[in-house]
Write the structure tokens for this entry.
Amino acid sequence: MSPSNQMKKTAKDLWRLFDWLDSSFDAGKWWPAETRFEILVGAVLTQNTAWTNVEKAIVALRSDGLLEASALLAAEPERVAELIYPTGYRNTKAVYLREISRWFLNFDGSVSGLGDEDVRSSLLSVRGVGDETADDILLYAYNRRVFIYDLYCRRFFKATGIGDFSSYRQAKTAIDPAVREAEFSLDQLQLFHGLIVEWGKQFRANPLLLSESRALQ
């Protein structure tokens, strides 16, 4: 099969999987946040931890009035680390939160005039922001049409025959052309990620879901 035909086939497969997920799971609200800056905070805190831990940290930061970029940047790092303790790597993440707060204050107002790749490159220059975190922010904070290739997604793609990818960047390079070909709307891309996360959570609790997912190949 030619690369062009393979891309078109993968695009059709992505639509088929999206429809199956949408009819099988309830993703709830994605991304769960009250402000754009809160999305950035959550995207940093969710690294290497469960979302339930992030929720605890968000509540603590909100209670201390630290879900505003200027306030978080001015806060004592030790206090921030204490508040985000449930997410793990608290001292490291406290530093990352200062850096993303500084970026937000400097660049948030100009993002609307920049292209997706320019915003992504700017985010990737921030300490503590990698590919997944940057795309989380692009998709949910700035409403850019990008696909999230997190661990849940890569497990889902492997289970359903889309591909076996060892890294975020490998999956993005391989599948992004098919995502563009599929022409998902912004709302659909935001929902797609939430549905895959829900699949991942239920997959851990129900191993039989793997057999059902493999049947979609």
Remarks:
- Residues 61 and 205 are 30 Å apart (CA to CA).
